[in-house]
Write a structure and sequence with these properties.
Chain lengths: 172, 402
C-alpha cells in the first residue's frame, strides 16, 4: 500500500515550488500540482516507482510545460502581438528594463517549443538534472538529450532575440 | 559576467532571472487536502478502461466524431484477438513514434451495429501540421503553430478559413486539441504500457501495447520484428455511442510536399467568410431549428422526411433553374454538421422526429423533441419553429401535438 499522504507531504512543497516557478501563477500552479499527483497515481498503478522525487519532478515539469503550451495557444494572438511589439522597432523606453520581463518571455517561449524539447530544457536548465538523469527518466539516450537541449536553446534564442534587440535600442 | 550584447547567453540570462524570482509560499493546506481527496477518489473509482478515459477527453473529439458519423454513416465492430508472441519491446515502438517527423495513415472510425466505416486520409507533419481528407467531401488543413484552419470543398471549389487565434473559447478553438492528440501519440514514452499480446496485421505478426500518455490511452500494434507501428486504435466513448478510431497503413517519415499544409486556399477556390459566431457556441437545438427552417423555406413548407438524410439538403439547395449560393450552402453544411453532432450527443433513445407529416407553420404540431441531457426534462420544436419545454406525456402519446 502506497503511503500517498506521506508522499504528498514530503514531496508536495518541492513539486509546487517547481511548477510555480515555471508558471509564475498560483492558480495554475495549484491545478498542475494536483494533475501531477494524479498522474503519479496513474503511473504507480502500472509500474514500480524507483524514486518518487524523480518521478514527481519529471511529471511536474511535463504538466507545467503542457500548461504553458495551452496558455500559449489560447493567447497566441495577444502574445504574438507582444513579440511583434518588441521586435517592431518602436519600443517603449521601459520595455525590457522591467524586472521579470525576460523570465516572462521565457515562459511564453517555452510554450512554443515542441513538448519534449521544453521538457528536457526545464529539467536541465531549471531543475539542474544531468543528461544521464534525464535520459534515464525519459527513456532516451544521452545523445538524444543533448540534441533536444541544443534544439531547445537554439529555438529559445530565436524567440528571445527580440528582447535583446530592444535592450540595445534602449541603451542607445 | 554575462555580456548583454551576446544573444548566445540570452537564454541563460532568462533562466537566471526565472530562478531568481521570489517564490510564493505553497501549496496551501486546502490544495494539499484537495489533491489527496482527488487521489482517493481516483483510486476508488472503477474507471471504464480505455473507453472511459477517452470519454473524459475534450469536447472536440466528441464533436469531430459526431460530425464524421453524421456526414459519412456508420461502421463495423472492431474485434481484437491476441494470438502468439513477439520479440519487439515497447521502447522500440515508442522510439519509432517519437522520432518520426511525418506520419501518413488511413483513419477510419468503426462503430457497432454495422454500416460503412467512416474513412479519411490523414497526414501529419512536424511542427503541428495536419491534413485530413475525406474522399469526395472535404479537405481540412490545420496549422497549430499559426493557429489557422482551412476547410476546402473540392466539389464546390470553396474554402472556409478560420483564425483559431480569434477564438478564445468554444469548439473551434479546441480544434488544436486534435493536433495535441497526435502529438501525444508521437511523444509517447512507452513507460506506461501493457502487453496486449500478438495478432496478425496485413500478413505481418504484430505485437500490441496499451499505451498511456498524459491521460490518454490507446493501443499500438507494431511489427513484432522491427517495432514499426502498423496500427493504432483509439477508443472513444460518447455516452450512448462508443466507437474506435483506427489509424492503419501507417507510413513514417515519408517525404511530403510542404504545400499539402498550405493554409492559403488555391487560387481557383472561392474563399467564403462564414458567420464565425456559429463556431463559438456549443451545438444545440438552435442548429436543428436552423436546418429545419432553411429546408422548409425552400420546399414550400415541407420538412425533410427524416433527420440524417442530409443529401436532401443538397438537392434542395441546388434546385433547377436556380443558382446555388455557395456561401449559403457552405453555411448550411456547417449547420448540418453541428445538428448531427447534437443528435449524436443526445443518443438515439433521447430524441424523436416527425417532420415528414408536418408543414411549416402548423404551430400545434411538434416536429422534433429531445430529452435535455442528464435530466427528465423534454423540449420540443414545433412546426412554427418555436421551442418550448414539453411534458413527457406529449412525447409518449404517439404523434405529438400540443
Amino acid at each position: 500500500m502506497i503511503d500517498w499522504e506521506g508522499i504528498v507531504a514530503r514531496e508536495g512543497p518541492g513539486v509546487w515550488r517547481r511548477v510555480y516557478r515555471l508558471l509564475g501563477n498560483r492558480a495554475d500552479a495549484d491545478e498542475v500540482f494536483q494533475e501531477t499527483f494524479l498522474a503519479a497515481l496513474s503511473f504507480a498503478k502500472r509500474s514500480v516507482v524507483q524514486s518518487w522525487g524523480a518521478l514527481l519532478h519529471r511529471l511536474a515539469s511535463a504538466r507545467a510545460v503542457d500548461r504553458l503550451r495551452q496558455r500559449q495557444r489560447r493567447n497566441t494572438r495577444q502574445e504574438m502581438a507582444d513579440f511583434d511589439c518588441v521586435g517592431g522597432g518602436e519600443p517603449e523606453p521601459f520595455q525590457n528594463a522591467e524586472a521579470g520581463e525576460l523570465s516572462a518571455r521565457l515562459r511564453v517561449a517555452l510554450g512554443r517549443l515542441p513538448e519534449r524539447q521544453a521538457e528536457v530544457f526545464c529539467l536541465h536548465a531549471l531543475e539542474g538534472w544531468k543528461h544521464e538523469e534525464i535520459a534515464r527518466e525519459m527513456d532516451i539516450s544521452s545523445d538524444a538529450v543533448g540534441v533536444l537541449l541544443h534544439r531547445a536553446r537554439a529555438r529559445l534564442r530565436e524567440l528571445l532575440a527580440p528582447a535583446l534587440k530592444v535592450e540595445r535600442q534602449v541603451r542607445t | 559576467m554575462n555580456d548583454p550584447n551576446n544573444n548566445h547567453d540570452l537564454v541563460d540570462r532568462a533562466v537566471a532571472e526565472m530562478l531568481e524570482e521570489p517564490l510564493a509560499e505553497g501549496p496551501s493546506a486546502m490544495v494539499m487536502e484537495r489533491t489527496l481527496e482527488a487521489m482517493k477518489k481516483e483510486s476508488v473509482e472503477a474507471r471504464g478502461g480505455i473507453v472511459g478515459r477517452i470519454g473524459g477527453m475534450g469536447w472536440m473529439y466528441k464533436f469531430a466524431a459526431a460530425l464524421l458519423i453524421g456526414l459519412c454513416g456508420v461502421a463495423v465492430v472492431l474485434v481484437v484477438n491476441g494470438v502468439g508472441g513477439g520479440t519487439v519491446a515497447v521502447a522500440d515502438v515508442a522510439r519509432k513514434l517519437r522520432e518520426s517527423r511525418t506520419l501518413a495513415c488511413n483513419w477510419t472510425m468503426e462503430v457497432p451495429n454495422g454500416g460503412k466505416p467512416v474513412a479519411m486520409k490523414m497526414t501529419f507533419m512536424e511542427p503541428g501540421r495536419l491534413r485530413v481528407e475525406v474522399p469526395g467531401m472535404a479537405v481540412t488543413i490545420l496549422d497549430s503553430s499559426k493557429n489557422k484552419l482551412l476547410v476546402l470543398n473540392p466539389m464546390m471549389k470553396t474554402a472556409i478559413a478560420v483564425d483559431l487565434g480569434e477564438m478564445k473559447a468554444g469548439p473551434a478553438n479546441q480544434a488544436t486539441d486534435i493536433i495535441e492528440w497526435i502529438e501525444k501519440i508521437k511523444n509517447t514514452t512507452g513507460k506506461q504500457a501493457q502487453n496486449l499480446g500478438s495478432r496478425e496485421i496485413v500478413g505481418v505478426e504484430a505485437k500490441g501495447f496499451l499505451m498511456t500518455e498524459q491521460g490518454m490511452e490507446y493501443a499500438v500494434w507494431a511489427d513484432a520484428k522491427s517495432g514499426t507501428p502498423l496500427r493504432i486504435e483509439i477508443p472513444i466513448d460518447m455516452g450512448n455511442f462508443k466507437t474506435t478510431v483506427v489509424m492503419s497503413d501507417l507510413v513514417f517519415d515519408q517525404k511530403m510536399d510542404e504545400g499539402l499544409f498550405e493554409i492559403q486556399p488555391p487560387a481557383e477556390y472561392l474563399l467564403v467568410n462564414l458567420d464565425l459566431p456559429m463556431f463559438h457556441s456549443a451545438v444545440g437545438e438552435e442548429d436543428i431549428v436552423a436546418v429545419l427552417r432553411w429546408y422548409a423555406e425552400r420546399s414550400e413548407g415541407r420538412f425533410p422526411k427524416a433527420l440524417g438524410q442530409w443529401v436532401d439538403f443538397i438537392k434542395v439547395g441546388k434546385q433547377p433553374g436556380q443558382k446555388a449560393d455557395q456561401k449559403e450552402l457552405m453555411g448550411v453544411m456547417v449547420r448540418i454538421g453541428r445538428a448531427t453532432a447534437f443528435l449524436t450527443s443526445l443518443g438515439s433513445g433521447n430524441y424523436g422526429y416527425n417532420g415528414g407529416e408536418v408543414r411549416l407553420g402548423e404551430k400545434e404540431k411538434m416536429v422534433f423533441w429531445y430529452r435535455v441531457e442528464e435530466s427528465e426534462r423534454w423540449r420540443g420544436i414545433f412546426a412554427d419553429l418555436r421551442v418550448e419545454e414539453v411534458g413527457r406525456e406529449q412525447i409518449l402519446s404517439g404523434r405529438p401535438t400540443k
